[in-house]
Each structure stands twice: as C-alpha cells, then as structure tokens.
Amino acid sequence: MTFTEMLQAVRASPRSVVIPTIWAQGRASFGGLVAAAAYEAMRAVTHDGRPVRSLAITFVGPVEVEVPVSFEAEALREGKSVSQVFCRVVQNGQVVALVQGSFGEARTSSVAVENLPAPSFKQPEHCQELPYIRKVMPAFTQHIAMRWALGHMPFSSSRELEMGGWMRLRSDDVRGERMDIAHLLALIDAWPPATLPHLKSPAPSSSLTWTVEFIQPQAQMPADGWCQYRALIEHARDGYGHIAAQCWAPDGNLLAISRQTVTIFG
User: Fold this and answer.
1) CATH topology for the 118-266 domain
2) pLDDT on residue 36
3) Which of 87, 134, 145, 195 is the most buried (most CB within 10 A)?
C-alpha cells in the first residue's frame, strides 16, 4: 500500500487498520506512519478543521504489522479557539501508543518573530542518498528518499552532534497530493536518531517520546517535494538520547520543530 492508501484506510475505518509489512521498521510498524494515522483519526474529531499546533506522542510498545490496530480519538475539550484531542492506539487489547494534540485557530497578536533560518545545504542531487537495501534497511525506507548533507551515516563512530539533509516521499506514494501534516510526520521520523552515527556497529534504537510543533499556516508545496532536516544531540547518556530537530520547506520556511527522547541499546 502507498502512503496515500494507508491514510485513506485510516479515514475510512480508524478502528480497524492493518499496516502491511512494506511499512515495517524492524519488528514493528514505522513510527512515523503510526503517528500520521493517529493524526488523521484526531483531525476527524476536531472542531471546524482547526489546524494542529502540536502533537505529543508516546510509543508504549511496538505496533505489529499485518495485525489490526485501532486509532481511538476523542476531543477532550473544545474551547473558543483551541481544541485538545487525545488518541489511544490499541492492538491486541493493549495500548501501544498515546497521542495528545492541540489544535488551534489563529488569533491577533503583537508578537511576531521570524523563523529559524534554513541551513545552507548542497542541493539534493549533490548529496549522498541513503540506499534501500532489502533485508538490510528497514522496509519503510523504500518509500522515502533521504540525502545526507550534514554529519555521518549511522554506525560510523562519528562524534558530531548534528545530522541532516534532504528528504521527500517517493512520487508513487503520494502522486498529485499537497504536503500535509501526515506527510511531515512520516518524513521527520524517517531519519535515524542523530545518536546512531556515534555507534561503531549496528544496534537497536527507538523513539520513546516525540513532540512535534507545527508552524501554521503550512507552506504550499507538493507532497513529494524536497524538505530540509537538521537534528542536534543535546544530551546522551545511560542509554537515552535527547534530540532537537527542525524541518524547512525548499523556500526556507520553517515547517515543524521536533524533540525526541530515544533509547539506545549499544
């Protein structure tokens, strides 16, 4: 199934979604897709199409592929301009993820600060692409192109604190669509944790918690357009890493701000 088909399946029946093996990340489903599906379920119960301002995601356990999973969203409160929405992701009778979202309408304010400037990366065609190698790379990476412009590849014994480059969904997965929040969630989570280049050999790592804040209104661009991504390790010790990241549109407009706590088994 393409990314678009996965989102359509969630919109049609959020209480019974099957994520196929081609969207696997190790023994679990790709976390970015799980987050995107939860967002779609939450958007459906949000008042008057208010845009999302932030999502706080906790990955309680692995979401299995080829097993039905339920995205159970509810509006906790509908205020004058802000809606608080919650989603439980349930599989085999167990909660496997929790997502809390804040959706808010624009309001008049005297405070206006321009976004962080985008990094000066080489153009995508001049950057090294992370290749998809069947049975070596996570299955979901065949759907997303990532090209390194900053830092080193995973498991390269690097000691750099930053990592980033360009990313986009493959055209066949989102043909003709406009970039949306669900697409951004998949793109941002596609990047390996910035701590992985510090390892000298492959070892498991996963997101424990993930908070994403979205700049509204979103830049208008195709869903298969290139976006820039830059991540910074702020601290890592005792098997946990704390990573801050940003995502920009090709024209330099900030799209999202991300923070992750990741586990490191190596």
Assistant:
1) Porin (2.40.160)
2) 98
3) 87
